[in-house]
Structure formats: C-alpha cells, structure tokens
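Recall the central idea of this unit: under ordinary conditions, the amino acid sequence of a chain determines the structure it adopts. In this exercise we apply that idea directly, starting from the sequence alone.
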Amino acid sequence: MTRPLILALTAALLAGCTPAAGPADVFSESKTAVEEIYKLQAAFHRAKTMQDMTLMMSLWADDATLTIQGDARSPYAGSASLKAFWQGSGSFVNRRLSLVPSFKTQIEVRGDEAWLYFECHDIGEFDQPTRNFAADVFLAGIVRRVGGRWVFWKMTAGKSLPLSPDHYYFSKEEAGWRKHS
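Accordingly, the structure predicted from this sequence is:
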C-alpha cells in the first residue's frame, strides 16, 4: 500500500467513519478520492504543457484562491483573476514541458476536502538541444470535491529550490489544514 493511500485511509478512519462502514468501504472510497486527486494534478501539468487554458480553468473552483509566495499581487481570487494570472504565467507565455516527481506528491483526504502537495519542474525548449530548467515550483493546499469532481480551492505556490528529493517547501500547517478540518 502506498504512503498517500495509507494517509488517505487513516484520514478517513480518523474523520469518524461510522461502524456500519466496513474497512473495505472506507478503503475503496479513499482510494477512489486519491486516484481522482492524483488525476487532478496530472491534468494541471497537462494544461500547462499543452497551454490549454480551458482545461486549466476547469481545474479550479469558482471561488478558488491562489497565493504566490513573493508576489505582491497575490492572492488571485476567483475565476477571472486566476485566468489572468495563468495567461501571464511562464507556462502559458513560453512553451514548457511540466514534469512532476510523483514520489513527492502528498494527498490526504477528509470527506469532500483534501490536502494536496506536488512539485512542478518545467523544462523550457524541451524538444531542442538548448533545453533548460525554466522553473522549479510547488503547488500545495486544499482541494475540494464540487459537483462530484475534485478541483483546486485554496492553494499556495512558491519556489522549490534548492531541488531536493526529501524536502517539502510548504506544509499542511502553513495551509491551515489542521485548523481547517
């Protein structure tokens, strides 16, 4: 069993599942949520790489916020503000391949909300001999299930430097996850 799945199952159990819900039911529901959230982050990277604004905007709740560490204009709140941000971002201005170290992805589900952490390592001019690291960032925060699908809700982004296989650049506590739930 993977660490994110164990976290999701533990979170579901701690969230007060009723005795009528057997372990198989909790496991199945948590596993499905983790899979759907993992697909959300995969779609995010696809939207950036393919410069697909329609897909990118479909991944965010209407009332979502995105705080960018070090950006005095943030937080970006609501669909119009988020769209304007993404249209001017490096991934939508420049052609990049957005990669993610999947072993660092964190997902913890509590009902219709979840903690999500992942990193993006973008390669500029990815199909050219001059390719280069264009960006190393994280995206982390609270995602929600809205209308049966998972979307980004209260997210924070920042630099993930220096690169590290075991350092996380933002925590659940910083996101208010413990206080929130």
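Confidence is low (pLDDT under 50) at residues 1-27.
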